[in-house]
Amino acid sequence: MNKTETIKAAPVKKYKKVASLDKKKARAGWLFVLPFLLGFVIIYLPIVFDSIRYSFNKIIILPGGGYMLEFVGWENYQEALFVDPSFVRTLTSGIQQLLLDIPAIVIFALFMAVLLNQDMFGRAAFRAIFFVPVILSTGLIAAIDEGNIMLDYMEDTSSSIETGSNQNTVAEIISVTDIGWLFNSMAVGTELVEYVTSMINNIYNVINRSGVQMLIFLAGLQSISPAIYESCSIDGASAWETFWKITIPMVSPMILVNAIYTVIDSLTMSTNSVMSYISNVYNQAGGNVVSTAMSWVYFLLVLIIIAAVAGLLSAFVFYQRRD
Amino acid sequence: MNATRSSPKVLKETKDSIRVDFQRTSKWTRFKLKYFNAAFLGHMVFVIFRTVLLIGISYVILYPFFSKISSSFMSREDFVDVTVKLIPKYPTLDTYKAIIRDNYYIEALINTTILSVFCGLVQTFICSLIGYGFAKFRFRGSGIIFLLVIFTMVVPHNTLQLSMFMKFRYFDVLGILKFLGGGVIPSFKVLGFTSINLNNSYWPLALLSLSGLAFKNGLYIFMMRQFYRGVPDELEESAYIDGSDVFRTFLTIIIPLSVPMMITLFLFAFSWQWTDDFYTNVFFTTEGLKLMPDVIAVPKSLDTDYAAQNLYVAAIRNTCGLMILFPLIIVYLFCQRYLIQGIERSGITG
């Protein structure tokens, strides 16, 4: 008994006052993250909490400054889901449209990143142009471009604009009949043909929304070691095979990141139909709490979609083991 | 190749050097072999396809800007004229003049510059700091805190619109002001108010930026974290051995290293703050500080009551957009070099 006690006591004395490097570093880590943590606890968490609280209440602003809450239970949610005539319809159609956009954006971004990664004349200029939408077509400008009849007018070659009225003059680049023959021999439904057509006609929108994804893919492509490509070409692999067997697996983590980023970005983008519907409701009554209830319903759906996408894709992700 | 067929003819031979004349394959044969094969032709087809595609997409991206620029010089008569497309018949600068005169453009420009430069710099620094904390230090709870960062990215803005407005309308830190103002115990009253109204000032955005909660800051933190993960640990270790502490190492070694990445972040933060319409709408009322969203309006002095009114109004709105973008374009031209560089060096890996 005595023996063991003395053995135990010795190391405790030795390390008593001196914090190890790991402990010091852990403390420093907390300090680095502190601004976020403080902000989250003091500002963000109350905001989220209030938002949830408001969605169960009615707000009455008092004349002397200050406000009063009246608890109404699930009434706001009931109004959003059952009373409001078009919320559920906007929600389903909006989410459906966004889910269809996401593969198009990710595939387009990957394709363009592969092209922009190649050695060619004027690469810097093309890259500069391709990232213009990331910087210049956001927020206010996107709001202006929404339903911009001036652009439709400029793209439209056949003039039916004497009145300048807001007609549907969006120019179609191709139509279903144009590419129907491409899919004739394949056993696919007309849905796919229509999907491809709508994506091509929507190319401006797709380009505008795939800038950050392109950057992430470019970074991923840059980080693939050239030695792998070299050994592939020595073994006689064609560019096509190299793309599918090397490039795709190596950038698959980025595909996951980009898919999730695209989901988040397009679902929380303020110009999409659901978000603009919600902010319309918000502005109508000057701080209508029903809009808060609506956006919490929407947020739950977003979370489910993100979880589904992440779960689905992470099965296919290949991580290179580094040593 | 042809050594066996025709041996080289010796032209001149001295003790130190020898000049010979080899017979080459004929020019035409060489030309044929070089260019008329499947590999080269296939490559050419691909190059042409690629160039056409890239130019076409560049056109799709840039055309709206061209048409906006050209329509901004058009007078209202041009919009009625069917023959006018891109080049105005009666070019005028009236639209620009009217926007500068009537829409508080200069005021909005100055205010937005102050706001965006401040937010851009603060967000760049704070997000680097936080990203570095996540990348290089293992401490208990770092995983959970990082999940919180992702959470701030995922919550749609509109969800928090109302409560964000309320939070800064009746600003209070953890109920301290309410306590001091007598809101909890009526007899204990130090201050004459229970909350501060921070709206219509730079404070809400400054506070959000300082804590890495402003627009898309989750993305910035994520980007910086990935970047710092690629920085070798040996760099810091050697600094620690030389006696530098953690913060000095960060300021003198890590920050200079990450300048291209930080310029990328600044470019994002600056330009997204510049064209932001969500936070400015929540925190600033139209009577308060003039910011960029206030510029978008039809100037009073322009008479739009004319045949192609809708088109003319749309063109005026687009001109407002162009004038908002103008300073941004200059910044982009200077920074776009770093945008690619910074991202390329980051080596973001999932």
How would you describe the overall organization of this protein?
The complex is a heterodimer of chains A (about 325) and B (about 350). Chain A has a domain at about 80-145 and about 190-315: MetI-like (MetI-like fold). Chain A has 16 helices and two strands. Chain A has helices spanning about 1-15, 20-55, 75-85, 85-115, 125-130, 130-135, 140-145, 150-155, 175-185, 190-200, 205-210, 210-220, 225-235, 240-270, 275-285, 290-315, and strands at about 55-60, 65-70. Residues about 155-170 of chain A have low confidence and may be disordered. Chain B is an all-alpha fold and about 350 residues long. Chain B has a domain at about 105-295: Orthogonal Bundle (MetI-like fold). The interface between A and B is large, with 103 and 105 residues.
Topology:
The complex is a heterodimer of chains A (323) and B (350).
Chain A: H1 2-14, H2 21-54, E1 57-61, E2 67-71, H3 75-83, H4 87-117, H5 123-130, H6 132-136, H7 139-145, H8 149-155, H9 176-184, H10 190-201, H11 203-209, H12 211-222, H13 226-234, H14 239-268, H15 273-284, H16 289-314
Antiparallel strand pairs in A: 1-2
Chain B: E1 9-13, E2 18-21, H1 27-35, H2 38-72, H3 76-80, H4 94-102, H5 105-136, H6 142-154, H7 157-169, H8 176-180, H9 203-210, H10 217-229, H11 233-241, H12 246-257, H13 259-274, H14 278-283, H15 292-295, H16 309-346
Antiparallel strand pairs in B: 1-2
Helix pairs in contact in B: 2-16, 5-9, 5-10, 5-13, 6-10, 10-13, 11-12, 13-16
Shape of chain A: globular
Q: What structural category arises from helix and sheet content of chain B?
A: mainly alpha
Net shape of chain B? flat
Helix content of chain B: 55-70%
Spell out the helices and strands of chain B N to C.
EEHHHHHHHHHHHHHHHH
Proportion in β-strands of chain B: under 5%
Q: Can you give the mean pLDDT of chain A?
A: 76
CATH topology of one domain in chain B: MetI-like fold
Q: What's the helix-strand series of chain A?
A: HHEEHHHHHHHHHHHHHH
Report the β-strand fraction of chain A as a percent range: under 5%
Low-confidence stretches of chain A: 157-171
Largest sheet features of chain B: 2 strands, antiparallel
| CATH class annotation of one domain in chain A | Mainly Alpha
Q: What's the mean pLDDT score of chain B?
A: 80
E-strand count of chain A: 2
Largest interface: A-B, 103 and 105 residues
- Please state the CA-atom Rg of chain B, rounded to the nearest Å: 31 Å
